[in-house]
Specification:
The protein is an alpha/beta fold. It folds into three domains: 175 residues, 3-Layer(bba) Sandwich (FAD/NAD(P)-binding domain); 123 residues, FAD/NAD(P)-binding domain (3-Layer(bba) Sandwich), CATH 3.50.50; 49 residues, Enolase-like, domain 1, CATH 3.30.390. Helix content is 21%, strand content 29%. The chain contains eight helices and 27 strands. Strands 5-2-1-9-20 form a five-stranded parallel sheet, covered by helices on one side. Strands 23-24-27-26-25 form a five-stranded antiparallel sheet. A four-stranded parallel sheet has the order 13-12-11-17, covered by helices on one side. A hairpin with a 4-residue loop joins strand 15 and strand 16. Helix 1 packs parallel to helix 7. The longest helix is centred in the C-terminal third of the chain and has 15 residues. The structure holds flavin-adenine dinucleotide (FAD). Flavin-adenine dinucleotide (FAD) binds next to helix 1 and helix 7. The site of flavin-adenine dinucleotide (FAD) has 34 residues, from helix 1 and helix 7.
Length: 389
């Protein structure tokens, strides 16, 4: 470890999403004295991102999703916040970050919590730029501004976020269609039977599925979007929402020479390949010593575990993060689901255990993951005990 160039400088946190604010909150539990500077490209308000995909049914407008305004976070946690300020570069030798408009800041330790970016597909036609995606409160406000009552919406992608939005939009009176090149919703996460049940449950709510094809061109004609699929079919809608996945935002780190693959590479202590620089959240590729694999974990629970461990490490008690099995609840009330995926690379097959419960079983007969549906979702704690890590 190199000597500190700014031993009296602040801990600088880049990003004010769940990862940035959780890191600060956990840090303040163990250190109330060290200055903390948070620099964020957005307003810095604290909101629960998962609420974006079920806010319509709950009757919430975007402003109501802010659980704690930035000023209150600042006052409670004793941080300095630079809002609407983009970090444009990191000098890992000088231990400084550079911003677009407010100069450079030295850091004693730097925490990168820059999240992920929505993947943008390119389409033919004149309306590619009208395609929306939702990965922040600002994106969501823009989406809601465009969404008229009973609007016709095409969702591109039948993954987790696509299915959650399909449920929320259909249940709140919108005419929803979903297009996906796969054969069924959430096909990579669910056993076939559960995927089929989700397809049926959302269809009963009014969702129209288009599987085995993809959107190839999007044209704005008068005030409608005309979308042509690869199979030649055409649909006419008011809004197109892309939900084809996220990619870790590693640009800042990579430009500074910090290693990144599917995310910013960190060791078990969340340290990047640069001294005094750490990362957590959707931008990060975690190493897990016990699991022996590295992976991105773009969910809430891993951020909580990472923030706790990081706080200890930042105050000098080097602490590795270990991720317990973290089942994810999929917010599709038409068919509630809980998914605890096996570690990436685990070989095995789905086995139905009883109605609404599937285990992912490896060659040794060990349970490595599970899926619960409907009323069985209440049994997640019990099922988690069956899993061999
Ligand atoms: C619709 C939706 C529903 C979800 N539902 C669930 C769920 O039910 N359960 C679950 O576990 N997970 C869910 N997730 C995932 C979960 O919300 C994310 O894993 C988590 O919110 C990511 O937080 P983050 O802080 O890493 O990233 P982000 O929230 O993306 O925050 C990144 C921050 O970095 C800032 N930033 C980026 N670059 C710069 C820069 N150069 N300079 C300054 N600031 C910068 C941004 O402005 C932002 O403040 C959902 C995600 C979505 C999109």
């Amino acid at each position: 470890m190199t000597a500190q160039r700014h031993p009296d400088g602040p801990v600088v946190v880049v990003g004010s999403g769940l990862a940035g604010w959780s890191a600060v909150r956990e840090f303040r539990k163990v250190d109330t004295a060290t200055p903390v500077l948070m620099i964020t490209a957005d307003a810095g308000d604290f909101y629960a991102k998962p609420a974006l995909s079920n806010a319509l049914v709950q009757g919430k407008v975007p402003a109501q999703l802010v659980t704690t305004p930035a000023e209150k976070m600042v006052a409670t946690l004793g941080v300095t916040l630079l809002q609407h300020t983009r970090v444009t570069g990191i000098d890992v030798q000088a231990q400084e970050v550079h911003t677009q408009s407010k100069g450079a800041f030295g850091y004693r330790q730097l925490v990168l919590a820059t999240g992920a970016k929505a993947i943008r597909l390119s389409f033919m036609g004149n309306a590619t730029n009208d395609v929306m995606s939702v990965n922040s409160l600002d994106d969501y406000a823009a989406f809601r501004a465009k969404l008229k009552p009973q609007a016709r919406v095409l969702i591109i992608g039948a993954g987790l976020i696509g299915c959650e939005f399909a449920n929320d939009l259909a249940a709140s009176g919108h005419a929803v269609q979903v297009v996906d090149p796969g054969a069924s919703p959430l096909a990579s996460l669910l056993p076939q039977e559960a995927s089929h049940a989700l397809r049926e449950s959302l269809a009963a709510l009014g969702v129209r599925w288009h599987f085995g094809t993809s959107a190839s061109s999007i044209d704005r004609v008068k005030d409608e979007d005309v979308v042509t699929f690869a199979n030649g079919q055409t649909v006419v809608v008011d809004v197109v929402l892309s939900a084809v996945g996220l990619r870790a935002d590693t640009a800042l780190a990579q430009a500074a020479g910090i290693a990144a693959e599917r995310g910013i590479v960190v060791n078990a202590q969340l340290q990047t390949t640069a001294p005094h620089v750490y990362a957590l959240g959707d931008n990060t590729q975690y190493a897990s010593e016990s699991a022996g694999v590295s992976r991105t974990l773009p969910y809430v629970m891993p951020i909580m575990a990472a923030a706790k461990a990081l706080a200890q490490t930042l105050v000098g008690t080097t602490t590795p993060v270990e991720f317990a099995l973290m089942p994810v609840a999929i917010k599709t009330p038409a068919l509630p689901l809980v998914v605890a995926p096996a570690l990436p690379g685990t070989q095995g097959a789905w086995a139905k255990v009883e109605e609404g419960i599937w285990h992912f079983v490896d060659a040794l007969g060990q349970v490595r993951g599970f899926v619960l549906s409907g009323a069985q979702t209440s049994r997640r704690a019990e099922q988690a005990k069956r899993v061999t890590a």
